[in-house]
Amino acid sequence: TDQQHKPDYKFERQVMRVGFRQTRTPSTARQGASGSLKLTAPSFNSSVTASALNRPISAPRMGPFSPLRKLAGAVARPFRRDSTVTSAAVRDPMTEAEIESLVLKLDEIEAVKFGEFKLKSGLISPVYVDLRVIVSYPEILEEVSRMMWGTVKSAKFDIMCGVPYTALPIATCMSLGFGVPMVMRRKEVKDYGTKKAIEGAFKSGQTCLIVEDLVTSGASVLETVDPLQEVGLKVTDVVVLIDREQGGEAHLERNGLKLHAAFKLSKLLSVLVKHGKVTKEVSNSVHAFISANQTSVPNAGPSAVVAKPKRLRYEERAPLAKNALARQCLELMVRKKSNLSVAADVDTAEEMLLLADQVGPHIVVFKTHVDIFDKWDDTIVARLQALAKKHDFLIFEDRKFADIGNTVVSQYARGIYKIAEWSHITNAHLVPGPGIIDGLKSVGLPKGRGLLLLAEMSSKGNLATGEYTAAVIQAALDHQDFVMGFISISPATWAAGLMPPGMIHMTPGVQLQKGGDALGQQYNTPTDVLGVRGSDVIIVGRGIIKAADPAAAAAEYQKAGWTAYEASL
Q: Any idea which residues carry the catalytic annotation?
């Protein structure tokens, strides 16, 4: 531009979300029309008000670029955000209604999920909090940052640092919205450039607030404390959106850190139950999981980890079994180096006997469904018992008793099948109440038999969850002389220390590849079942009986199961 086109104007533009003021001032004649551009971050302790932030942009006088400005404005107009949105710093603290609304929004965007989820610790959790998704929802991110700020604003700090990576956008939003400087911790320190672990402008002796999305044990927070302290920063406070209530607050306090949590997980659950987003049963299962899985205390520093309870070997557990058959089964597993059970879900007794002879060398338990067959007599029983003795395995009739005590006595001892006479193991539902155990025990205990209670099932949508599972566990504890263990899916999520080590967990629905069938059966791998879910015996059906060579398939599953067991020790 030349001197005749120099505009004589001053205009300001408020950047609503960020809270920065952009100011262009007129320059001297020597500088021409370019002017000077200055960005200044306002102090949020100053008298900036919502009305000032919403002041309309004053129009500049006409200049040579006015047509281009008009064109750019026309193009951009449909994409501009509502100019009434104000900086987080000038908004009032969130009300209880707004807090409930935020919980419902987090549920809507699936930042909180319910089901079965493998955690970093290896446990299978009925709830999973995934706050990474909030970066895609700016309004929710702003509400999260405002709620967390309201939780921690009474603490004294000079700067803040988000725990990488999920908390970084939250910390950035808090920094921009409330005018607090931020530093950033590198998760992986580069071996070139400045090689800094902490990036940003700070002074030794300043106090740093740690920002994290959620806390379970506090290990990830403690991993951030160490590099901050190494550069001379003080750390006294931690703010999180959600406290899972699994010991993190106590662990941080033990390391000199005060936890400020916007939500307790129990509060979040109560809101979701109130609004019908989750059932009371799901809520109870989450509470039970939290209570049963309190984390151990990590130490500050980069090596902080959550200690995993030691798993006893089968041979260490055998002497601790109160049921004789449970002890025999554990000893058999060690002797054969196998934790495999084959489900003989075939159509005829002859097919069942042939399968028993084929897979017998590789298994510890042979599971039958004799009520499928159209023929059953004493000769079949004798042949099956002979094969069990030949190949050294136990017989498990998967009867799933579910009637009152007096009825199951007749079903177990008499009738066509006389199950108690030949089957080492049987199982039962607890739907009728603990009287079913008393009835079966009166028949089976004198014969040295063992009972498995169905605590969980592998079919989709089954009702063996939550309070029902807890009741089954208690019934088993009351009858350890006869109850040898459970049919279970994720015993690792049960209360640590509650389960006597002499009890055995058997898990159905196992294949070498995860998946499911059209009728709702859900399959898990040996590694998942033994190493993550904490079971003892894998029950395999179609993966073996439908194989071209059942014996070879059984050998493969035997190896996979034993390898997974040894890896879990």
A: 400
